UniProtKB/TrEMBL annotation:
<dbReference type="InterPro" id="IPR027417">
    <property type="entry name" value="P-loop_NTPase"/>
</dbReference>
<dbReference type="InterPro" id="IPR003439">
    <property type="entry name" value="ABC_transporter-like_ATP-bd"/>
</dbReference>
<dbReference type="InterPro" id="IPR003593">
    <property type="entry name" value="AAA+_ATPase"/>
</dbReference>
<protein>
    <submittedName>
        <fullName>ABC transporter ATP-binding protein</fullName>
    </submittedName>
</protein>
<dbReference type="GO" id="GO:0005524">
    <property type="term" value="F:ATP binding"/>
</dbReference>
<keyword id="KW-0547">Nucleotide-binding</keyword>
<dbReference type="GO" id="GO:0016887">
    <property type="term" value="F:ATP hydrolysis activity"/>
</dbReference>
<keyword id="KW-0067">ATP-binding</keyword>
<feature type="domain" description="ABC transporter">
    <location>
        <begin position="17"/>
        <end position="254"/>
    </location>
</feature>
<keyword id="KW-0813">Transport</keyword>
<dbReference type="Pfam" id="PF00005">
    <property type="entry name" value="ABC_tran"/>
</dbReference>
Length: 267
């Protein structure tokens, strides 16, 4: 059951990301063709789709790691296409990104990992940055004595939390998460979903969440966008998307795993 207030699009109609007519190609491989997507203020938007439908490429296009072949991307009211490199990096500072792999530097302890963006981008001194890093660790539920530990000594769930703390280091307006619960056991994944909703409710950021995890969709997402046929086929509440007349959607939501997730969250 969704325990948070279901902040649907009606309550958060202000878009923080607006993608229109996006085209992405790699040589002859057309990944996106005329793709539209909207992320509203304060919502957690789950982005799903079959393997290779371009979820990660979409995320990378928005955060500035892949230059689109065509289309416009507007973030927080600013059209990214029109910006200089310097202006673009100002906008990108308002993003927090958690990638599926390579989330933390293995040679740095947690405090140093989280302090890094504060030193590099916010130009804080080391002591102040590490103080803030410890605050971020407590925000994601990690005790102060994890601050000096290295990523390899932590469980998968703790690493994800620490990576989330780093993504939150610069107090982002928009958080991008690429399969954050991949590799976690169901209890660790559920705890991460709950933490995400709690932090969103408390801090008010908006979330672009790529996931294959049906439980995450039920537990954390206000709306779901489905990538299929090189575009966003539908964006709506989970209940409406789950009943959408499309073969992949029906297989995904009404298959055994989809029904199990739905059942688990109804009880
Ligand atoms: N750097 C790249 N060079 C060439 N092709 C790429 C590159 N990055 C992605 N692609 C291609 O773009 C397509 C979409 O990839 P993407 O990783 O976005 O899919 P996805 O939906 O995130 O998949 P998955 O669910 O398996 O992670 C794939 O065909 C992939 O091969």
């Amino acid at each position: 059951m969704v325990t948070h207030s279901n902040k649907s699009s009606e309550q958060h109609s202000q878009p923080v990301i607006s993608v229109r007519g996006l085209v992405n190609r790699f040589g002859a491989n057309v990944v996106h063709e005329n793709l539209d997507l909207t992320l509203n203020q304060g919502e957690i938007l789950g982005v799903v789709g079959g393997s290779g439908t371009g979820k990660s490429v979409l995320l990378r296009s928005i955060v500035g790691l892949k230059r689109p072949n065509d289309g416009t991307i507007e973030v927080l009211g600013t059209r990214l296409n029109d910006l200089s490199e310097e202006q673009r990096s100002q906008v990108e500072r308002r993003f927090g990104v958690l990638f599926q792999r390579g989330a933390l530097f293995s040679s740095l302890n947690l405090q140093e990992n989280i302090a890094l963006p504060l030193i590099e981008h916010a130009k804080l001194g080391r002591e102040e940055a590490e103080y803030l890093a410890r605050l971020k660790l407590s925000l994601v539920g990690l005790s102060p004595n994890t601050a000096l530990q290295f990523p390899e000594s932590l469980s998968g769930g703790m690493v994800k939390r620490a990576a989330l703390a780093r993504a939150l280091a610069l107090d982002p307006d928009i958080l991008f998460l690429d399969e954050p619960t991949a590799g976690l056991d169901p209890i660790g994944a559920a705890a991460f979903d709950e933490l995400l909703v709690t932090l969103r409710d408390a801090l008010g950021f908006s979330v672009f969440l790529v996931t294959h995890d049906l439980d995450t969709l039920y537990a954390a997402c206000d709306r779901v966008a489905v990538l299929s046929q090189k575009r966003v086929l539908v964006t709506d509440t989970l209940a409406r998307v789950a009943s959408y007349d499309d073969e992949w959607i029906q297989d995904y939501f009404q298959g055994p795993r989809g029904r199990a997730a739905q059942h688990a969250h109804q009880n």
